[in-house]
Every structure is written in structure tokens, then in C-alpha cells.
Write a structure and sequence with these properties.
250 residues; 38% strand
Length: 250
């Protein structure tokens, strides 16, 4: 179902001397965030450092997300923002003003770029810069975008192999079933990029030995997994939840 955006003008594919960050990511298919944290030896009192609502946007039925273009609103450093992200199968010339990085899930790596904009009451949800960015690659029906959410998105700062990591979950009830779309993310320093393969295997081994259930056979970003779950559930969803307590929104 996953489609990467590969049919682009050749001139857009260029070599770059600028350093690009890399995030190693693991899609987690365990029963709940509290289960994963317990397996990683964190106590039940270990609360997330941040809990926010996140809302996704797409057509109805969804089209753009599976093709590599994502729209969402959330909080960034306590400021409401909108975000437009594009996912590619190869490194591209980054649009001015876009934040770009490599994301690795399993054996797959994608080059992703995003443009964020603060939400201002009375103004359009998507800024002129975001519209221009998305329009480079897609013909977007902006007036046809509908919201999916909000969903709760708690995040925990954890450590794996002594490295800083982020564990987060998008939580919802879809077609009457509790769904936790969980991920672990570890950032790789520029000077460590050449060692990323060995590091990915080492952290995978730590997670597996701890009993954490990693999604198989395919590793996909949680946004794609959310829309796949929505499609299987006939598009019925309810707001996010936590199975044992309510967290305050930050």
C-alpha cells in the first residue's frame, strides 16, 4: 500500500554538501505504552514528558498520506502549528525553509522534508509557504481536506544503550477497538551516519531481548499505520485515550 514519491523532474534530484540528520525508527506493535515501558525497565510512575493532541488531514477517503504527503496540526514548544511533510524515496534538493532529514524504518529509508507554520486565529490553516512547498510535488485539493482527530499523542524521553531516545504513541479508538500506534526514535549524529546499520541492528536486538514487540513483516511510520487502521475500520474513530489514567495536555 505504501507508495513513495519517485516520479519527479530529474533536476530536483541533486547532490548536497549540507549535513542531513538521520532518525532511526522502530514501529512498535505491543499491547500498550505502559507495557513497552515496563519491558524497558521503567516504573509505572514514569509519566510522559509531553502530551498533546495531534490532528491529521487528508481527503475522504484518504489519498495523499499513502502517496507521501502528510498534513497535520499539533503543538510545538507550546505553540499551535500546522505542518506539511513530503516523503521521498531518494535525497532531493530541499526547498528553502523546509526541514529535511532521513528516516529509517527497518530496511527502508525515506528522505522527508517539512514546512511548519504557526496557527493564527482568523487566518488560513495552511500558509503560502506550505502551499508552495506541497504544490511542487502534488496537485492538492486544499478545500477538500478533512480532519482526522484529534488523537492523543504522549511522548516519553527514554534511553536505550545509553542513547537519548523518544518513545511516543498516537492513541485512538477505531471501529470500537483500542489502538496504540507506537514508535521508538533515536537520532544519529552526523559523524555516526556511516555506522547507522550496525547501530540499528544493535538497538533492535536490545528491544527484542527486552520482549518489545516490533511490527512485522513491514516497518511503517505511525501516520501510515493510522490511516491503514482507519481504512480497515471503515473510517470510524473516536478521540484518543489512555487505558489506566488521564494525562493533562501540555
Amino acid at each position: 500500500m505504501l507508495l513513495t514519491l519517485l516520479i519527479l523532474l530529474p533536476a530536483l534530484f541533486v547532490a548536497s554538501t549540507s549535513p542531513i540528520s538521520l532518525s532511526l525508527q522502530w514501529a512498535i506493535c505491543d499491547t500498550s505504552p505502559s507495557t513497552v515501558l515496563r519491558k524497558l525497565s521503567y516504573p509505572p510512575t514514569f509519566d510522559p514528558h509531553k502530551v498533546q493532541n495531534i490532528t491529521y488531514f487528508d481527503l475522504s477517503p484518504p489519498q495523499y498520506t499513502t502517496q507521501g504527503l502528510a498534513f497535520r496540526t499539533k503543538l510545538h514548544k507550546h505553540v499551535p502549528i500546522s505542518l506539511v511533510k513530503a516523503r521521498f524515496g531518494d535525497k532531493m534538493n530541499a526547498t528553502e525553509g523546509a526541514q529535511c532529514k532521513w528516516d529509517r524504518y527497518g530496511n527502508n529509508s525515506w528522505f522527508t522534508c517539512g514546512v511548519s507554520s504557526p496557527l493564527v486565529e482568523g487566518k488560513a490553516l495552511w500558509s503560502a509557504e506550505q502551499v508552495a512547498f506541497a504544490s511542487r510535488y502534488f496537485s492538492v485539493q486544499w478545500d477538500q481536506l478533512v480532519s482526522y482527530g484529534p488523537f492523543l499523542n504522549p511522548k516519553w524521553k527514554i534511553r536505550i544503550m545509553g542513547r537519548k531516545a523518544v518513545f511516543d504513541s498516537v492513541e485512538a479508538v477505531i471501529a470500537g477497538r483500542f489502538v496504540h500506534l507506537m514508535e521508538v526514535e533515536v537520532g544519529v549524529k552526523e559523524q555516526e551516519v556511516e555506522e547507522r546499520g550496525g547501530l540499528y541492528k544493535a538497538i533492535t536486538r536490545v528491544l527484542v531481548e527486552a520482549g518489545v514487540v516490533i511490527c512485522k513483516p513491514t516497518q511503517l511510520p505511525k501516520t501510515l499505520r493510522l490511516f491503514e487502521a482507519l481504512q480497515r475500520g471503515g473510517g470510524a474513530w473516536e478521540e484518543g485515550f489512555k487505558e489506566d489514567k488521564q494525562w493533562p495536555l501540555v
